[in-house]
Design a protein that fits this description.
Shape: globular
CATH architecture of the largest domain: 3-Layer(aba) Sandwich
Number of helices: 11
Strand content: 15-25%
Distance between the termini: 68 Å
Helix content: 40-55%
Order of helices and strands: HEHEHEHEHEHEHEHEEHHEH
CATH superfamily of the largest domain: Bordetella uptake gene, domain 1
CATH topology of the largest domain: D-Maltodextrin-Binding Protein, domain 2
């Protein structure tokens, strides 16, 4: 009797297991059957928000549902990214994963980071890389990278540079630039790109490395207020064709601030594949690509595995620099 009971319970357990698998398959086959939430870990109105809304619309058209963008800013992207990581892994909550929370903040915040980018996040696809551009004010005496570096070497710590805060892309890439070129300069952090740009234009800081999208309006107008000296990409940008790369000027510097689509770990792989397909379809549309390129960025794309490998390489690269320079957040 006991043996029969055990066999019966075992049979029930196996049946339940198969039933759960069947439900999962059915859910994946019906996906999506409701709107999808797209969390942006930054404030509305910025470049991250704008790009997310463009992508969300295209993804919704491809998936046959509405993709609703929700902004969850704060703590250098940690708050919104944490909400993505903690969401139910059913494919109905996805979001924007970028440079800081995915590749840098673990080194800056350590155990206080409320999520693990490696364990708690499922990468979907890298959507774009925004090459960093070296800018000086239009009244600056520096007309080339060589002139700026020469002065920096001749007068250690005479130059200063702006950033959007300790540990941000503009700060880290500037530190990499100094190391690659062999000179020193004083770091002046600002609370955002607008005040940093304003002080660059006013001549209060000597240089600033930032996304091309922030500089383009100031460099291509009839009366330019910022002079772009170099771009940290392998090739010149279509939006700034007259600005040479760092490599063209003898400095081995390629660095970008990048965006991708992420989901919570544990999302079924067939749903991951559907989301990845929708992202890549959006990136392939000329109407989308032209907007990205006009703002000085490079359309990416690829598989979830490609994005995962890219995140790992970026994490390794910047964690070494953060440790070497003893960079901390205030």
């Amino acid at each position: 009797m006991i043996k029969n009971s055990r066999r019966y319970l075992a049979a029930l357990a196996i049946a339940a297991c198969y039933a759960g698998q069947s439900v999962g398959v059915a859910q994946a086959a019906d996906y999506p059957s409701q709107p999808i939430t797209f969390i942006v870990p930054y404030a509305a109105g910025g470049s991250s928000d704008t790009r997310s809304r463009q992508l969300a619309q295209k993804m919704g058209e491809s998936l046959g549902t509405t993709v609703v963008v929700e902004n969850r800013p704060g703590a250098s992207g940690n708050i919104g990214t944490s909400q993505i990581a903690r969401a139910k892994p059913d494919g109905y909550t996805i979001g924007l994963g970028n440079f800081a929370p995915m590749a840098v903040n673990k080194s800056l915040y350590g155990k206080t980071l409320p999520f693990d980018p490696e364990k708690d996040i499922q990468p979907i696809a890298l959507i774009e890389r925004g090459a960093m551009v070296l800018g000086v004010g239009s009244q600056s005496p520096y007309a080339s990278v060589g002139a700026l570096v020469k002065d920096g070497k001749a007068k250690p710590n005479h130059l200063n540079y702006a950033s959007t805060g300790a540990g941000g892309a503009s700060h880290l890439v500037s530190e990499l630039f100094k190391d690659s070129a062999g000179f020193n300069a004083v770091h002046i952090p600002y609370r955002g790109g607008a005040p940093a740009s304003n002080d660059l234009i006013a001549g209060n800081v000597d240089f600033y490395l930032e996304l091309a999208s922030l500089f383009i309006p100031h460099t291509t107008s009839d009366q330019p207020r910022i002079r772009a000296l170099a771009v940290a990409s392998e090739e010149r940008l279509k939006a700034l064709p007259n600005v040479p790369t760092f490599k063209e000027q003898g400095i081995d510097l390629v660095a970008s601030n990048w965006f991708g689509v992420i989901a919570p770990a544990g999302v079924p792989q067939d749903i991951v594949a559907r989301l990845n397909k929708a992202v890549n379809q959006a990136l392939g549309e000329e109407s989308y690509r032209s907007v990205v390129q006009a703002q000085g960025a490079e359309v990416a794309g690829g598989s979830p595995e490609d994005f995962q490998a890219f995140i790992r390489s970026e994490s390794e690269r910047w964690s070494k620099l953060i440790e070497q320079k003893n960079i901390t957040v205030q």
